[in-house]
Automatic annotation (TrEMBL):
Family of this protein: Belongs to the zinc-containing alcohol dehydrogenase family.
Taxonomic path: Bacteria, Bacillati, Actinomycetota, Actinomycetes, Micrococcales
This protein's name: Glutathione-dependent formaldehyde dehydrogenase
InterPro entries reported for this sequence: ADH-like_C, ADH-like_N, ADH_Zn_CS, GroES-like_sf, NAD(P)-bd_dom_sf
Domain (Alcohol dehydrogenase-like C-terminal) ranges: 189-255
GO molecular function: oxidoreductase activity; zinc ion binding
Any Pfam family: ADH_N
Keyword terms, alphabetized: Metal-binding, Oxidoreductase, Zinc
Cofactor(s) named in the record: Zn(2+)
Length: 394
């Protein structure tokens, strides 16, 4: 089969790799019909090279049709149309029963002290082949796979795999009071959905992003948008009686602009020999913290900052004096996808499309164009906000 493979920092390629096989009674094989490039994939593309091997199959946002199931899979069957959550969870361990599927004790990567295994996401999370491919083996398919209807297009359902529940969890963790105010830092795909979810749930939502196309997209959904910089922060603070918003969602993470030293650290770490690079990731502060520091500065005293953007440095500096003085609550973590599906499935199937899932994809391309798509997405060229790859398209 064809699959998108990591080769080195800033280099991916589409290659022929062996078709996946049923290895366990709980497995399923899914033929992929749509698979997206996520902002988190850019971390592998640029930063996390020390944990990657040439040939690793990428991708963790995928959906398709089941081709084969193991003997232990009865809830779904061959021919079912399904979405694949990005984290692999068993559904029966203590963590899963607490709604913490991203910490699944059955698939935890204990070697690296990480939570549940993820599709297509480095040795840190199990080195499980990902979904930017024609076929995908799905472990724990009985619990993990999300069966969906056959009438609506893929774009209605695809984002249930990651970015929509990630945004939903980010807003829920932000704990905005009824009728309160929410700021979203970063209007990439997760930030777009977080802002729209805030509006949907009744908050006044502000958002900051340096890219005009992203701001224009968010504004279409009732979000008050501002360019990156002090003027936007000042205006948001003035609009909230000088206090700042009740909550802030950082939807950027380690990809933040405005951190040239950390950007240089990213570039250096990504090219170091693997043992040295891994050691640097595990002991050095390599994150670009501009978005996080903006969030902590902007939120009102006693407010909440919710991190949906991914950070990777272990020793990244934090302004703890200010955080303590402002009495800031901080919540974060990988999304527990299965915990939010019952809330989200009716919304993506609603004819009114209240979260605007049909207004996100800017580029739908053949799988074979993945290399140029990654470069375009990272550089934000051609108005690129969200790329979906179609394995059947030529």
């Amino acid at each position: 089969m064809k699959a998108v493979t990591w080769q080195s920092t800033h280099q991916v390629s589409v290659q022929d790799v062996p078709d996946p096989q049923i290895l366990d009674a709980g497995d399923a094989i899914v033929r992929i019909t749509s698979t997206a490039i996520c902002g988190s994939d850019l971390h592998l593309y640029e930063v996390l090279g020390p944990y990657m091997e040439p040939g690793d199959v990428l991708g963790h946002e995928a959906m398709g049709v089941i081709e084969q199931v193991g003997s232990g899979v009865t809830r779904v069957r061959r021919g079912d149309r399904v979405v694949v959550p990005f984290n692999i969870s068993c559904g029966h361990c203590w963590m899963c029963t607490q709604g913490l599927q991203s910490q699944c004790e059955t698939t935890q990567v204990t070697e690296h002290g990480s939570g549940a295994s993820l599709f297509g996401f480095s040795k840190l999370y199990g080195q499980v082949p990902g979904g930017q491919a024609e076929l995908l083996r799905v472990p724990h398919a009985e619990y993990g796979l999300i069966a969906v209807g056959s009438d609506l297009p893929d774009e209605r359902y695809l984002f249930l795999s990651d970015i929509l529940p990630t945004a939903w969890q980010g807003v829920k963790y932000a704990d905005v009071p009824d009728g309160g105010t929410l700021a979203v830092i970063g209007l990439g795909p997760v930030g777009q959905f977080a802002a729209r979810i805030g509006v949907h749930l009744g908050s006044r939502v502000f958002a900051i992003d340096p890219v005009p196309e992203r701001r224009a997209m968010a504004a279409r959904h009732g979000v008050e948008v501002f360019d990156q910089g002090p003027d936007g922060v000042k205006t948001i603070r003035e609009a909230t009686d000088g206090r700042g918003p009740d909550a802030v969602v950082d939807a950027v993470g380690m990809e933040a602009h405005g951190s040239p030293v950390a950007r240089a650290a990213h570039q250096v770490v990504g090219h170091l020999p693997k043992p040295v690079g891994q050691r640097a990731m595990e002991t050095v502060g390599v994150d670009r913290l501009a978005a996080l520091h903006t969030s902590l500065d902007l939120v009102r005293r006693g407010g909440t900052v919710s991190l949906s953007g991914v950070y990777g440095g272990v020793a990244s500096p934090m302004p703890l004096l200010s955080m303590f003085d402002k009495q800031i609550q901080l919540r974060m973590g990988q999304c527990n996808v299965r915990a939010w599906i019952d809330d989200l499935l009716p919304l993506v199937e609603d004819p009114a499309d209240p979260l605007g899932v049909t207004d996100l994809i800017t580029h739908r391309l053949p799988l074979e164009e993945a290399a140029s798509a990654y470069a375009m997405f990272q550089k934000k060229h051609d108005g690129c906000i969200k790329v979906v790859l179609d394995p059947a398209r030529r």
